[in-house]
Amino acid sequence: MKRTVLFQLFLLLLVAPNVHSQITTSDPEIAKMVQEVKTENLETIVKKLVSFGTRHTLSDTKSNTRGIGAAQRWVKSEFDKYALASNRRLTSKIDYFTIKADGKRIAVDSELGNVMATLKGTDPNDDRVLIISGHLDSRASDVMDAKSDAPGANDDGSGVACVMELARIMSQREFPFTLIFVAVVGEEQGLYGAKHLADVAKAQKWNLIAMLNNDMIGNSLSSGTQLRDNTQVRVFSETIPYTETEAEAKMRKATNRDNDSPSRQLARYIKTVTNQYVPQLDIQLVYRNDRFLRGGDHTPFSQNGFTAIRFCEMNENYDHQHQNVRKENNIQYGDLPEFMDFEYMRKVTCSNLATFSNLAWSPKAPENVGIEVKELTNSSVLVWQAPQGKPIFGYNILIRETSASHWQKAVFTKDNKIEIPYSKDNYFFAVQSVDALGHASLPVFPIPIR
């Protein structure tokens, strides 16, 4: 008599005491931090950034009231305030670097600077790094216009405000490894600030496990279509990694893992955590590195082989993006605070906070994750090794149909090997480490083991 898959799973759970359906555990400290994100804080930061008139990358660096220099120094001063509240565990700096004239959007050799706040980890043996960013610079209609007002409220005052709010809240806690909060410059001129930081990370061989880029997360009304929606946000992630080797490409094709790049696993992780901690916000997984033929500050990190994604509002408003401040035919143009939805922005910031803190407290990912293929069977056997460092409470086995965009099922086990009644012909799998509070590592896609 044939057993149904459901009955097989029942038997599996009955006879294997270390195997259970996943029980989602929420960390009360993360829930508390999410509640500490304040709409009024985000609005205050955005309006302060707008007050500098323009934050064009090549604008005034000497004035204390106008231009990119004044904005950089103000952001650093805020980071310094957070540092005092953290007993100086948080440190800040403006990381200056020189960009040569490129004949495109950098007219002359220029000194640029990323404003960075670093929260050092408490475990000297954990070398992992997380980065979250927004871009400080703004632009008018003409990308080379460094004189006209360019408020940059949403693009990307919203991303910078998100980064600053996370730095304020998270710097009051301790995490085992290093967290970097950064307001990069040069995005509108060619992603120069992000490229500089990504190159530093690569040259110094940082163990950077994830980079979150926030660029335009404060608008909920689209131009043209007039769609208004403050319940969805896009997360962009690359399909095939930029740095994929020939051997990796061969394995990707053999296992059909075109939709399971590390960045895409991070995007799914964000969706799972957001569903857990942030009401009335759904992550829309967009299967491309960025918007059509466009790019953002996560791109240089992807190009250097790091796992990176972009948060971006669901509906862009082009009346308030890359526009001079003006009024035409009774339509107000320009990236001004009055056109933003700060409650929407709060929810997206909470999604970032829940994701960033979960990762920051997570154990390391399981190692040498594999799926056995020595026999033809309608079950699947996955094996892996425990990672070094923080003790592991157990592992989640994530399961989805090949046509599904997101994980549909999860099974928890304390073992390092599991047989589940799901055929590898019909499902994709991944394994993630979990601690006792439910903090999970990024999922790892298994490779065939013969």
Features:
11 helices; Immunoglobulin-like; disordered N terminus; 2 domains; globular; 450 residues; 4-stranded antiparallel sheet; 8-stranded mixed sheet; Aminopeptidase; alpha/beta; single chain; Peptidase_M28; 24% strand
Could you please describe the fold and organization of this structure?
- The radius of gyration is 23 Å and the shape is globular.
- The chain has 450 residues and is of the alpha/beta class.
- An eight-stranded mixed sheet has the order 2-3-5-4-6-9-7-8, sandwiched between helices.
- The protein has two domains: 28-361, 3-Layer(aba) Sandwich (Aminopeptidase), CATH 3.40.630; 367-448, Immunoglobulins (Immunoglobulin-like, Sandwich), CATH 2.60.40.10.
- The two termini are 31 Å apart.
- Helix content is 29%, strand content 24%.
- It has helices spanning 5-15, 28-36, 39-50, 68-85, 157-170, 187-190, 192-203, 246-255, 262-277, 299-303, 342-360; strands spanning 19-21, 90-99, 110-119, 128-135, 178-184, 207-214, 232-237, 282-286, 308-313, 326-328, 331-333, 367-372, 380-385, 394-401, 409-413, 417-420, 427-434, 447-449.
- The chain has eleven helices and 18 strands.
- Strand 14 and strand 15 form a beta hairpin.
- Mean pLDDT is 94; it is low at 1-17.
